[in-house]
Amino acid sequence: MKTRTRLCYVASLVSFLAACAGATALCVEIEGRDVSVLQNSVTHAKLESIGLSEDGTQFVGTESGSRFIAWGFNYDHDDSGRLIEDYWYDAWSTVQEDFTEMKALGANCVRIHLQLSQFMEALDRPNQASLTQLSRLVALAERTGLYLDITGLGCYHKQDVPAWYDALNESQRWRVQAMFWAQVAKTCAGSHAIFCYDLMNEPILPGEKNTESEWLAGEFGGKSFVQRITLDLAGRTREQVARAWVDTLVTAIRKYDKRHLVTVGVIPWAHTFPNAKPIFYSETVSENLDFVSVHFYPRKGEVNKALAALKVYDVGKPIVIEETFPLLCGEAEFETFVNASQESVDGYIGFYWGKTIEEYSQPDVAIAGAITRNWLEYFRTKGPDILKGNHKDSRPITP
């Protein structure tokens, strides 16, 4: 449970921002106390759906036609490493507080990561309790004025992946994945707060030997972020498999939701291998994907290399850097990357792990905490500049 000091800090911060911006304040109850939430006149209950411009190159509000730039956070786990489904029942007030704090930092978008094991109990049986809680989260996003990037099919904690799921063959596994997305889309279709559905975090295919034995591909920080969509190419090209998988899941979504955007977040292999070509965003595969989602962590001394890799994904669709953070380079180089990429990018999504700038400023905070504090300060300061837009278009921005 978070401290009274933290709650008072949030209330003071948001009240100050509201006064500066001439905004109204919305009071929500968190653990029995009132906390002010910044509420601009065009957000909160007045969120409009986000779609594509007529030429398909930018995001726009479907009612206003104003350009939309995503500026937000991956809310993938809390500071202790718990995934959202680990605490969104018993510590719902924490989720409410975190959404309030992300909004106060200037975010307009939150990326959440849903684990398949929490939403599918068996091959054909969804978990209704999780779907109900997802509906509750969508309502929270609407109240807070935040759009959701819903990333699905997560298997981040390998120990939580059901044995029955790992035992399935490719067609059965895709069937479960399609059921997952059909149920999520059915739950979320009516809300203007859905920015997009991201089919899977960093899907990959077998390498040179064309077959693999494990669905998950290693761990980072105790989590398996990367998974395979097949274990055997079986004579097919990687593009053929990727296209069939994308189309299967998009068809499941479109059965219930024909308006919200669909994407898939990928590793930019061109950042590591300069001659690498995108598979999921090749012309063959990406027909039913509305925009490009790519994950960039610029490396020290290699900002130009990262920018060159980014150009590989400029395929005529909006680009969102769906994961980014000064993890592998200093703040100055990260700023250079962001500034230089604005001309071609339509959104940036960093990270928020449930702690405020104040909490990361305590004397006993370790180096990692200090880096995160600096990131949050950068995010809060940089937001207004990002949301002004870049040289791609001069249309007004949807707040």
Low-confidence stretches: 1-45
Give the ordered list of helices and strands: HEEEEEEHHEHEEHEHHEEEHEHEHEHEH
Strand order of the largest sheet: 16-15-14-11-10-7-6-17
Q: At the first level of CATH, what is the class?
A: Alpha Beta
Distance between the termini: 31 Å
The Rg value, from CA coordinates, equals 20 Å
Number of domains: 1
CATH superfamily: Glycosidases
* Main sheet record: 8 strands, parallel
Counting helices, strands and paired strands, the structural category is alpha/beta
Number of DSSP helices? 12
Number of strands: 17
CATH architecture: Alpha-Beta Barrel
| Overall outline | globular
Mean pLDDT over the full residue set: 88
- Helicity level, as a percent range? 25-40%
CATH T-level fold name: TIM Barrel
